[in-house]
Automatic annotation (TrEMBL), chain A:
Keyword Ribonucleoprotein among UniProt keywords: no
InterPro entries (alphabetical): Spore_GerAB (IPR004761)
Keyword Translocase: no
Main location class: membrane
Organism per entry: Cohnella luojiensis
GO biological process: spore germination
Name of this protein: Spore gernimation protein
Membrane topology of the entry: Multi-pass membrane protein
Ranges that cross the membrane: 9-28, 34-56, 68-91, 103-130, 142-164, 184-203, 215-248, 268-292, 304-323, 335-354
UniProt keyword list: Germination, Membrane, Transmembrane, Transmembrane helix, Transport
Automatic annotation (TrEMBL), chain B:
One family name in Pfam for this protein: GerA
Record bears the keyword Iron-sulfur: no
KW rRNA processing (keyword) present: no
Organism expressing this protein natively: Cohnella luojiensis
Keywords of this entry: Membrane, Transmembrane, Transmembrane helix
Name the UniProt record assigns to this protein: Spore germination protein
Transmembrane segments: 239-260, 281-300, 372-396, 403-429
Amino acid sequence: MERISQSQLASLIILFQIGSSPLFLLASEAGTDAWLSVFIGMLCGMAVLIAVTLPIYRKTPDKNLAEIFTGTFGKVAGSLFGVTYVVYFGYKAVRNVREFSDLMILYLLPTTPLWFIMFVFLAVAGYAICQGIEVFARIAEILLPIIIIVYIVLFFMIYCTGIFDYQRLLPILDDGLKKVADAAIPELISFPFGEMVLFLMFWKHASPSARTTRTTLFSFLFAGTFITLTNIVIIGSLGTLSGISVVPLMQVVNLVQFANFVERLDPVVALLLFAGVFMKMTAYFFGTTLVFTQVFRMNRRKAVIPVGLLIFMGSLMFRSYMQHIWFGFEKNLKFHFPIFQIGIPVFLLLAVILKSRLQGSKSPPS
Amino acid sequence: MIQTVLGTSSDIVVRKINDDSTGLDGVAFVYIYDLIDQQTVNQMILHPLMTEIGEQTSPSSSSEWLKIIKNKVLSVGQVKELHSMDEAVNQLLEGCTLVFLQGCTVALAANTYGGEYRSIEEPSSQTVIRGPKESFTENIKTNISLMRRRIKSTELRVELRQIGKQTKTHVGIMFLKGIAKDKIVEEIRTRLNRIDTDSILESAYIEEFIQDANMTPFPTIENTERPDAAAAGILEGQIAIIVDGTPFVLLAPVTFVRFFQSSEDFYQRYDIATFLRIIRYVSFFISMLLPSLFIAISTFHQEMLPTPLLISLAAQREGVPFPAIVEALLMEITFEVLREAGVRMPRVIGPAISIVGALVLGQAAVQAGLVSAAMVIVVSFTAIANFVIPAINMAIAARLIRFVMMILGGTLGLFGIMSGMMVILIHLAGLRSFGVPYLAPLSPFIWTNWKDTFIRVPQWAMKKRPPTMASKNNITRQGKGQKPAPPGPNSDT
C-alpha cells in the first residue's frame, strides 16, 4: 500500500484547510467580529473532529471511508452510502472548480471561455490523481513552505504599507456574543472546518499510524489559526468595505504599494489561490475517485475519466458565479453539508461501535 | 583454425616456430597486430620463447611443455589457460597473444593489451576553475585506475561484464560496499544483465536501457567526465557505471537537486558555493520560464507592469507585425539553430557564425522591425541562463519545457504557466531513480540532505552521508568536533 509520511499528512491537511478559504471573508455577517466567529468555528470544527471523525479512524485505522461503509453495513447498503459520498465529495470538487475558474476569468483571463479553464484545471488534477496518493502528498509537502512564505511576505508588505489598522477591529463584541456565534454555526463548521471528513479517505495511508491523531490535530490548529489571522488582516485593512468586495484579499493586495516599485501583487494572490484551490479540489477529486473505485470496482486510472467528466459537467450547471455563491452559502452550508460532515459520520461511528461490541460479545478475544 | 572464425583479416598475425633442437615442436603465436603492444610481445613472449627455451630440460609430453612455458618462460603479468575455441577468440579480440602447442588441447593467453589511446586530458564539458584537471578517457582501464587512485578503500568493488553481441563492450560497475545500498546495487546488476543488444558505443546506450522512466525530459541517471565527481558520488553511495569507449561515466541513483551541484562547489568556500548554487536554481527557472512570462504579461496582463515600462514596451512593439508569441518562438528557434550550428560546425568557421548571429539576427532584426529589442534581450538572457546549469542533460530538459511553456503562456496567460508548472511538479514528484524519489530531499523531506541542497555547509558540518542514497548502517562521514577554532589565549603560536 502507498504510504505517506506524517509531515506530508500535515501539509495535506493545512493546504486543504487553507484551500479556498482566503477567497472569501468568512462570517461576514458578524462584521468586525468575523475573526472571532472564525475562531469559534474552528473550535467547533475541532470538537467535531475529536468527537466524531477521528474516533471512526481510530476504530478502523486500516480502512478508508468506503471500506468502512461496506464493512459495517454490508455490500448493498454500504455501496449506497458510498454513492452518497461520491455525490458529496464530487459536489465539493464542483464548487471548487467553479469558484476558481470564475475568479480566473474575473482577474486574469477575461476573454477565455469558462469551460476551457475548467477543463485545463481538471486535467492537471486528474494527472495528479493518476500518479497516486504518494505523489499528491509530496506536492503538498513542496508547496506548503512556498505558500506559507509568500503569505508571510504578503502580510509583511501589507503591514509596511500601513493599510492595516487594528482600530478597525474595535469595538470587539459590539453586538454581543450571539451574533458572532450565529455567524459561526453552522456555516463555519461546514466550511471550512467540518470538511475533515474527507481525510477518512486518506488517513489509512499515513504512517506511522500511532502519530496520525496528533499530527492531524496540530495541523488543523495551525490551519485554523492561519485562517483567523487572514481574517484579521482583511478586516483590519478594509474595515466595513470587506463585506462587499468579491475577493477581499485581492482588494487588500491592490492597495499595497511598496518602495514605489512593487505595485501590482494581484498575480501573487492569484498564484496563492491557484495553489490552494488546486490542492483542495484535487483532494476532493481524489476522494470522489477513491469512493467511486470502491463502489464500482474500477481501476483508479480508469475511474479518473468518468469522475472528471461528472465534475466538469457539474461545474457548468450553475448559471453564474453569484448564483453559485448564493446557493453555496445559503443552502449547502446550512442544510446539506452538515448531513455528510456530522450526521452520517455520527451514525457511522455508532454503528461501528455497536458492531465491535456485538462481535466482542460473540467471540471474545483469545 | 583461428582463421576460420575470424576470416582472413590482414591484421591477424600467426607466427609458427619449429625448432627441433629443443624437442619442442610446433609452437604458434597468434595476435592481432593493432590490439597489442608490440614491445611487450617482442620482449616478453617472443624473445624468451626463442632463447630461454633451450635452457629448460626438455620434458616428454606437450602438456608438460605448456606448464614450463606458462610458469618459467612467459614473463607477462597475466597468463591464462584456455580450453575452448570461443574463449580463445574472445581473448584474442581483447588484445591477448595466444600461444598454441602442437598436440596440446590447451592454449595460453598472455595479456599483451596495448595500442594507441587518447591520453588523460582536461575535461572539456565540465570545467572548473579550481579542482583536479583530469578527465576520463575512452579506455576503461585508465578510467578504473583514475578511480582507484582516488579511493584506496578496500571496500571499493569493481564488477566487469561484457554487453553487446557484436561490440562485446566492457561495462564495469563500481561502488563502495557498505556505503552503497545493497538493494540498489542488485537492481543495477539485474538491469544490466537484462540488456540484450547488438552494440554499446557510448554510455547513453546503457542509460536508455536501464533508466526508470522513458516518458520524461528529465534525466534519471547522471553522467560525468570528471573522476573527482564520480569519486564523490561513489563516496555518497552512488554507483558508477563505466563503459569502455567513452569518457562519460554514469552515476545512479540520482535526484533532481544533484544536477545543480558542480564538483567545484566543494572546492570553493562554502558561502560562495551556496551563492553560486542559488544562482543556478534561479537560472534554471529563468531559462524555463522567462520567455513564457514575458509573453503572458505582455499579451494578457499588461496591467501588471509599471506604467513607464509598459509605455516603452508598447512603443517598441509598435512596428512589429507579429503577436508576442510568434515573435518569441521565432527568436527562440533562431537561437536554437545558432546554438546547434555552433556545436556542429568546424571550429575554423566559428567567428563568422558569431558575427552573423550577433549582428544580423540581433541588431538588424530589430532595426528591420521584425522583432522588438525587448524580445532580443529576453531571448538572449534566457539562453545565457541555460548555460549556467552544470549538467547539460538537465539544461536540455529546461530548453524543451521552455517551448511548451511559451505556448501555454501565449494561450492561457499566467494561468497556463501555473498549470504547466503544476504538471511538471506532479511529474517530478512521481519520478524515481532506482527507487530513490527524484525530488528527495525536498519531498520526502530529509533534513540531513538539506545541508547540501540549496546551501552547502562547510565540510566539518556535513557529518552524515545523505540517507537518500547511502546505506543507513554506515551513515557517519566524519568525527565530531572538527570545526576549526583559533588556538586558546594560552597557546604560544
